[in-house]
Amino acid sequence: MTTPDPQARGARKERIGSVISDKMNKTIVVRVERRVRHPIYEKVVTRSSRFYAHDEKNEAKMGDRVRIAETRPLSRLKRWRLVEVLEKAEASAAELKEAGEEAAAQAAA
Q: Do residues 53 and 80 make contact, with C-beta atoms less than 8 angstroms apart?
């Protein structure tokens, strides 16, 4: 019996996008943007798609740039998995505020 050639099966699609939600356990929502030319007006328009992706270790956070790859259906909406986090998002204002409050509480104690 021979091993199947990965090229014969077809390459899995990969996309790069931004995490717009990480509220679900082991699931992220990724927005992938693409630029297309309008067929009549010929203006370049930005279109976006939302993909639900499996994040096994809950490592991606909101605002991160990530690479996702196509996979078998994991649930009703999830057909993608997280490959890697390309760029971490800078801390949000809420996170900075919480860190400041914690530091103030420790200083007061």
A: yes
How large is the average pLDDT for residues 73-98?
A: 86
Q: How far is CA 72 from the centre of its chain?
A: 17
**How far is C-alpha 73 from the chain's CA centre?**
17
> Model's pTM, two decimal places?
0.74
User: Per-residue pLDDT averaged across 59-84, rounded?
Assistant: 97
User: 11-108 belongs to which homologous superfamily?
Assistant: Nucleic acid-binding proteins (2.40.50.140)
What pLDDT is recorded for position 50? 98
Domain limits, the chain: 11-108
Residue 52 tokens, joined: 């639900």
b/e map of 77-91 (b: 16 or more CB within 10 Å)? ebbbbbbebeeeeee
What contacts 50, CB < 8 A, 6 or more positions away?
20, 29, 30, 31, 32
Q: Give Cα separations from 57 to 25, 35, 93 (angstroms).
A: 9, 31, 24
